[in-house]
């Protein structure tokens, strides 16, 4: 995992109660069984942590930490 | 066929809802604005958004009957073609006059009003910041637009402020979108703080008053009126299908450009206009809102009675008085069982399951009407006690 992916895992662990380990390829919805409201809260935490805003369109197909990291890099660019 | 494979998942989800599918309730008949026949038995309707109880208003029914006789059953055309009758224009003028704004635009449904207004407003150089708990029609409206779409935490002015700040110069071309009264939990937006923030960043504010028009404010104009910020809000949307008891929707604004919305709004153009009977029933209901404040007083009296009754049962039903009350339940199965139990006892409420319910919760949603009798309110409380409170596994 790169530093952004590691940071996202840390933010996720702070945002929601996790039952198991998380890596860059863990499916947030199916793998962690997060409700969409929990995912939305996690995204808000990520935005605040990086001081960014992420377009909804960039989040549409995000299922994993790795995919979210791509959206974060896009917002940071 | 591969094209149809997606429906397997839907069918499985539907099977999981059990014997009585909450998405397939049939109201077999109506005894009044607040009582229907469901599964062959009289049922108190406590999940309808019929806030002022105007669906059986005698003046409204007479106006609708007259319109049917005089103008027929439908317009068979778009507002942009043959579907604008004098009644449509009169309704728009009356809505504009009620707000003291230069104009109003009427749409065929509340859903179309949100889609059509956002589609007209937002272009490729614009951005929109939506409350995360905003209604699906607002999210869908944003999908129709080429604008950049972002969200902020529900009812959190600081979250909005931070995000507008991050948008920099883009904030000056950003539309902030909120609801006045949120229709699931019945909570109000902190609109005065949001108005201050959007003004400081040079953004515009769009308020969906679907659940608050006719309900909040001295005149019934909604949360913006109640909070004293009508002159600061840029666009207000409302629906006819709640306090007005018909179908349709509208957008009003202090900005004269609103009159040009129809030319940039496909949901306005490419659908038939509201039927003449609907228009005249709506005009009658609007007159009732303007001239019969006792309806609103009765609604709030009933809302207070239900809230007190549920609170005395030890249930948490939100922080502020509201005609919409929600009881959070433990999980999906418990909520489904409670909803079924209430219906079997003769009370229809709304079942809200994730993702439709906010914060991942499962809940029973109740909405109060001015037309509910004291006996009906008390029966709703009694059934709630019997089904929810006396079944501790549900909460």
Salient structural properties:
heterodimer, A: 77 residues, mainly alpha, Non-ribosomal Peptide Synthetase Peptidyl Carrier Protein, Chain A, 4 helices, 0% strand, B: 395 residues, alpha/beta, Aspartate Aminotransferase, domain 2, 2 domains, seven-stranded mixed beta sheet, four-stranded mixed beta sheet, 14 strands
Concise synopsis of the structure shown:
The complex is a heterodimer of chains A (about 80) and B (about 400). Chain A is mainly alpha-helical. Chain A has helices at about 5-15, 35-50, 55-60, 65-75.
| Residue-averaged pLDDT of chain A | 88
What is the oligomeric state here? heterodimer
CATH superfamily of the largest domain in chain B: Type I PLP-dependent aspartate aminotransferase-like (Major domain)
**CATH fold descriptor of chain A:** Non-ribosomal Peptide Synthetase Peptidyl Carrier Protein, Chain A
Question: Approximately how much helix is present in the residues of chain B?
Answer: 25-40%
Structural class of chain A: mainly alpha
Strand order of the largest sheet of chain B: 4-10-9-8-7-5-6
**Poorly predicted sequence stretches spanning 5 or more consecutive residues of chain A:** none
CATH class membership of chain A? Mainly Alpha
Classify the beta-strand content of chain A into a percent band.
under 5%
CATH topology of the largest domain in chain B: Aspartate Aminotransferase, domain 2
Largest interchain contact = A-B, 16 and 18 residues
Relative strand content of chain B: 15-25%
Helix content of chain A: 55-70%
Low-confidence stretches of chain B: none
What Rg of chain B is obtained from the alpha carbons, in whole angstroms? 21 Å
Distance between the first and last residues' Cα of chain A: 20 Å
CATH classification, class level of the largest domain in chain B: Alpha Beta
Write the element-wise H/E pattern of chain B from the N-terminal end onward: HEEEHHEHEHEHEHEHEEHHHEHEEEH
């Amino acid at each position: 995992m790169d530093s952004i992916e590691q940071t996202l895992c840390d933010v996720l662990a702070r945002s929601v109660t996790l039952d198991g380990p998380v890596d860059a390829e863990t499916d947030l919805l199916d793998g962690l069984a997060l409700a969409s409201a929990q995912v939305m809260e996690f995204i808000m935490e990520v935005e605040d942590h990086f001081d960014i805003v992420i377009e909804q369109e960039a989040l549409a197909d995000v299922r994993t930490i790795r995919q979210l990291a791509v959206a974060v890099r896009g917002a940071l660019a | 066929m591969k094209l149809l494979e997606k429906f397997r998942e839907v069918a499985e989800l539907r099977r999981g809802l059990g014997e009585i599918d909450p998405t397939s309730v049939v109201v077999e008949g109506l005894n009044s604005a607040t009582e229907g026949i469901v599964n062959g038995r009289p049922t108190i309707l406590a999940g309808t958004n019929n806030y002022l109880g105007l669906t059986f208003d005698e003046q409204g029914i007479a106006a609708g009957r007259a319109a049917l006789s005089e103008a027929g059953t439908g317009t068979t055309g778009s507002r942009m073609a043959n579907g604008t009758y004098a009644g449509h224009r009169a309704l728009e003028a009356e809505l504009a006059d009620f707000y003291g704004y230069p104009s109003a635009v009427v749409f065929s449904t509340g859903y179309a009003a949100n889609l059509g207004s956002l589609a007209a407003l937002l272009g490729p150089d614009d951005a929109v910041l939506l409350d995360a708990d905003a209604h699906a029609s607002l999210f869908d409206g944003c999908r129709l637009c080429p604008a950049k779409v972002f969200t902020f935490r529900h009812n959190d002015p600081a979250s909005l402020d931070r995000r507008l700040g991050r948008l920099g110069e883009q904030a000056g071309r950003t539309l902030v979108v909120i609801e006045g009264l949120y229709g699931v939990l019945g909570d109000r937006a902190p609109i005065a703080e949001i108005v201050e923030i959007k003004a400081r960043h040079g953004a515009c504010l769009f308020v969906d008053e679907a659940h608050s028009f006719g309900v909040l404010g001295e005149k019934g104009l909604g949360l913006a009126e109640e909070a004293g910020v009508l002159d600061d809000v840029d666009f207000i949307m409302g629906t006819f299908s709640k306090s007005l008891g018909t179908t349709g929707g509208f957008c009003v604004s202090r900005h004269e450009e609103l009159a040009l919305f129809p030319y940039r709004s496909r949901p306005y153009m490419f659908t038939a206009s509201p039927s003449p009977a609907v228009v005249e029933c709506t005009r009658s209901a609007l007159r009732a809102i303007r001239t019969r404040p006792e309806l609103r007083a009765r609604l709030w009296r009933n809302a207070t009675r239900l809230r007190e009754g549920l609170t005395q049962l030890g249930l948490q039903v939100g922080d502020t008085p509201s005609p919409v009350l929600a009881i959070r339940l433990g999980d999906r199965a418990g909520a489904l069982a409670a909803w079924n139990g209430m219906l079997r006892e003769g009370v229809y409420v709304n079942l809200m399951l994730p993702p439709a319910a906010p914060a991942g919760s499962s809940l029973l949603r109740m909405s109060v009407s001015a037309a509910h009798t004291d006996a009906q309110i008390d029966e709703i409380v009694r059934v709630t006690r019997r089904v929810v409170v006396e079944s501790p596994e549900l909460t």
